[in-house]
Amino acid sequence: MRTARLRTVHPVLWAGWAALAAGAVLCVIGWYGISGERYAERQLPFLASCTVPGAALIIAGAVLLTHGRNALAAARVEELYGLLVAAEPADVDESGQAVPVAVSGELLTVPGGTLWHRADCPLVAGKAEAVPVDSLLLASGELGPCPICEPSAADPDD
Q: Which residues does 9 contact at the CB level (< 8 Å), separation at least 6?
């Protein structure tokens, strides 16, 4: 499943490579013309007509390649996101409702962390350094709720 955006990126990449090649050819022609001239007055036309435009084409080609690669990466991420959203969630019970990731009422945090979690949250489950969260720490606003297990400050056993 290729998106239309992926197909529009390839011409940008081809244009970038073409600009780089044309710039390199112009720089070589300019160098060859300058190398045959002894006086600076006779070298200036080669600089003006070949070397400077060649350098500009090389810069333009590099910009096009960078833009094309970024657009290609963005298109691939967009395609993967579409596949992820289209897939059915794995944790669905018989009624069609999503099964919560964690249901424990005990709240934990990791020292130095910025979130509080349920005890059975996959981010803190099995970590010996996880410590219980007290109500003073929750009230201070230093910690935020985990977006994975979605605990609330009103959970029991806190």
A: 68, 71, 72, 75
